[in-house]
Amino acid sequence: MCGISGVVSLEKKFINVDISKSMVDILEHRGPDDSGYLFFHTGARHNPNISFYLNLTDEKFKHVNQTLNTVNALEVQKELHEHDYDLFLGFRRLAILDLSSAGHQPFSDLSKNIWLVFNGEIYNYIDLRSELRNFGHRFKSNCDTEVIVYSFVEWGIECVKKFNGMFSFALYDNFKKKLYLVRDRCGIKPMYWSIDEDYNFTFASEVKSILVYRGWNFKLDNSSLLEYLTFQNFLSNKTLYKDIFILEPGKYIEIDLLKRNFYIRDYWDFDFISLIDFSLNKNAAIDELSVIMESAVKRQMVSDVEVGSYLSGGIDTGILV
């Protein structure tokens, strides 16, 4: 499942480093196998040519990441409070692909300028990795996380259109001082976001991670509550909390740290008409559906751990099993 969270300051202020770790820790249930904390001084508010970071883990997982310092170490805490940081990325890992420390997140490219926290799976990552190798990229792990990073290096944010999978991720480009928050086409993986009165932009896999950073100060959105009680769902980007939103499927948020603003952009939407082959008769359509279904299930069973399935007794789960 995994859990991601983070905060970026869009004003000439620094983030609260003392609360940042708690944003991640409250997502422990989503990822019991590893944790990562990245504090970044991007330079966007002062001198874009000067940036530095601290890439840390938790004492609990020091045996997994022996080369990383731990976030609560005295020398690290001193470093965190002697400098100001305007970007934080946090991660809790549920290991599915490449169970080694090579899959630790936040994950970076070789230059340490592209950083990623990622929840989900990219089902076509093996094909993409082969394509990227033809462009000269080299890989140190066997996980789909690294494929996202080098897909971005090769194709920019347009790489998201190449991904077949379920995902939400945050990717920081230190060259352009931009942070991208991305959600998959159907909204399988969650991504919540908010911006407060101090222009701190927070995001996470769950609302409570954002509430931790905001000191649990929130107001109920009555219109959203009415929408939920009527439809048992949200049909918009609202949540039960005022000023906390969910990133809609098929969209990404581009946050420009230099201009101190953000944009929500579409990269995909449903288009059933272009996908329908009206020349197929009923039997041919049934055969085609069977091929597609089998291919989709096979693609989603790629894993370095055991694969299981929920069987509710309905026709959909029955077909999948």
Rounded radius of gyration (Å): 21 Å
Structural class of the secondary structure composition? Answer: alpha+beta
* Average pLDDT: 92
Biggest beta sheet attributes:
8 strands, mixed
Helices and strands, in order, run as EHEEEHEEEHHEEEEHHEEEHHH
**Span from first to last CA?**
20 Å
Sheet with most strands: strand arrangement = 4-3-2-5-1-11-10-12
Give the helix proportion (percent range): 25-40%
Poorly predicted regions: none
Molecular shape: globular
Structure description:
With 321 residues, the chain is an alpha+beta fold. The strands form 2 sheets. An 8-stranded mixed sheet has the order 4-3-2-5-1-11-10-12, covered by helices on one side. The protein has a 6-stranded antiparallel sheet with strand order 6-7-8-9-13-14, with helices on one face.
Would you kindly provide a brief summary of this structure?
The protein is built from nine helices and 14 strands. The chain has 321 residues and is of the alpha+beta class.
List the helices and strands and how they pair.
Blueprint (H helix, E strand, L loop, with lengths): L2 E7 L7 H9 L8 E8 L10 E6 L11 E2 L3 H9 L4 E7 L13 E2 L5 E9 L2 H10 L9 H12 L9 E9 L4 E6 L8 E4 L4 E5 L2 H7 L8 H10 L12 E3 L4 E6 L4 E6 L5 H4 L6 H18 L15 H6 L1
Parallel strand pairs: 3-4
Antiparallel strand pairs: 1-5, 1-11, 2-3, 2-5, 6-7, 7-8, 8-9, 9-13, 10-11, 10-12, 13-14
Salient structural properties:
single chain; 321 residues; alpha+beta; eight-stranded mixed β-sheet; 25% strand
